[in-house]
Amino acid sequence: MLDLAIIGGGPAGLTAGLYATRGGLENVVMYEKGMPGGAITQSSEVENYPGIKEVVSGMDLMASWPEQCMRFGLKHEMAEVVRVSRPEGLCFKVELSDGSVETAKSVIVCTGGTPRKAGFKGEEEFFGRGVSTCATCDGFFYRDKEVAVIGGGDTALEEALYLANICSKVYVVHRRDEFRAAPSTVKRARENGKIEFVTNVLVEEVYGDAMGVQGIRLKKKDSGEVIDLPVPGVFVFVGYDVNNRVLKQEDGSFLCDVNEYGEVVVDLQMRTSEQGLFAAGDIRIMAPKQVVCAAGDGANAAIGAIAYVEHLHRENLC
Amino acid sequence: MLDLAIIGGGPAGLTAGLYATRGGLENVVMYEKGMPGGAITQSSEVENYPGIKEVVSGMDLMASWPEQCMRFGLKHEMAEVVRVSRPEGLCFKVELSDGSVETAKSVIVCTGGTPRKAGFKGEEEFFGRGVSTCATCDGFFYRDKEVAVIGGGDTALEEALYLANICSKVYVVHRRDEFRAAPSTVKRARENGKIEFVTNVLVEEVYGDAMGVQGIRLKKKDSGEVIDLPVPGVFVFVGYDVNNRVLKQEDGSFLCDVNEYGEVVVDLQMRTSEQGLFAAGDIRIMAPKQVVCAAGDGANAAIGAIAYVEHLHRENLC
Q1: Contact in structure between A173 and A220 (CB atoms under 8 Å)
Q2: Which of B165, B167, B169, B303 to mutate to test the interface with A (most CBs of A within 10 A)?
Q3: What's the CATH number of domain A2-114+240-314, 3.40.50.720, 3.40.50.10090, 3.30.470.20, 3.50.50.60?
Q4: Tell me: the pLDDT tens digits for B140-190?
Q5: Cα–chain-centroid distance for residue B34?
Q6: Phi-psi bin for B281: left (phi > 0), alpha (psi -120 to 50), beta?
Q7: Are B101 and B266 a contacting pair, CB within 8 Å?
Q8: What is the ipTM of this complex?
């Protein structure tokens, strides 16, 4: 029986493990089938994690975390969790892909989210080297330069507005000439002097060299005309998958409340609607999707889990 | 006219400044009359800020933050803010103690809080070297050792329960034999085998040497009997002052909603009830009072301020 199962090994999961074990919880396991570190390990440059003033790769940023966070007894199990459930009135069940089941008094789910790929040539090759899915993270690297934003939803246009504060020009590249984004957001983007719309186009490829992206080639859907934008940065916002699969029950419902996007509803203490179940990092509603925010969430959730488990012990509920 | 005024220069304020300037806001000033760094600079040992795996002093932990956070244009003004107000429909007014006034489109308030002193001999001398006001921060340094908790409120007993997970014994030292804490919390503490109540006593002094605390001397209020507890750690929870003075208006009301303890009410995006005014770190409701959480709040609030200011520009409100 675990005091706490942590699902996911990014900044939120690692920090939750550090705080939970340092706070006295025993048998705390972090389930992460790959190496710990999270999505940030795919970034080539990070300069906004406070306390690390050098510009470092995401991999380097996270290199010291596992040792620090596991020093107090956190165990890392390289296993895939397929489902977290809770039989009525009992402890949580953590089902692994090999068919085994562990029980836990409390659970913190921090499995993050995955930006969708647009599917053009060069997208994977240049990811983290000119192709980005995070304006807050990477926009500054293109200060006073031109960038392209791919997408037509709210996120794409809001991120374009964010980038317009920093970059000299922002091309919004969209395959249609209508936008899913809220009309007021479209209006603000249209009225922004730094934003130029390039619509009814398909992205052919992002091209570059060993140093990174040098441009993006588009094709007009009607005329077939090729448009070349020689931009060093391409931001892709064509959707986002919240990694909430482990919370999905056999009947298709979720173990706790999620919003219309599948993000887990939490309060300021990272408590979900299910007692003893916490969420932290990019999986939760309103996540700023920043390493320092995810880590803060993890600490916050762990402090809640410690109090919850202490309470359980007194009540002999589990 | 500032895009953003940040009131307070701890982890929340510094991180807010980093994110705001890196996100393109201009004229961003952090008001902190002393050196930046915040309350954590009074701690002698920190080992739970993720990414800094060495055990460092709070001063060393924060040493690199100002340079990193000010690299993108954040200005530090060593001035004391006496009040933030907002004349109807206009921008914020930031009043300084020298009588000057600055205007700002948005404000992030992160002035933290101050644990109250119990007032015994040795309390200041050994603060950060055995006397602590944070169980989450410092409890682990007394693993399998005995500690004393001073206080009789909810925080004191909840922190005692937290410490009981880690320490071999927790003395709860209280000057009365009745507790302000919720009866259910008192009951849980009484039933905890590691917690021993020492009531109706006054704290005479905390004593020790250059290495830190060696014990605490108490005096029975009725008999005058002296009790010596040879503990290396003393946790003081006798109240907490939220540093919300800058939000207090001339008529005694607050600029935004605060709760019964004076903590600023925020949502998950650190927005207060006043549009364009954000709160971050220990001043807000439900603050976990951890450096990483305060820093996460600061990033979160800055992202909100950037969006708010961008929106203002379009609407020409300010």
Answers
A1: no
A2: B165
A3: 3.50.50.60
A4: 999 999 999 999 999 999 999 999 999 999 999 999 999 999 999 999 999
A5: 16
A6: left
A7: no
A8: 0.95
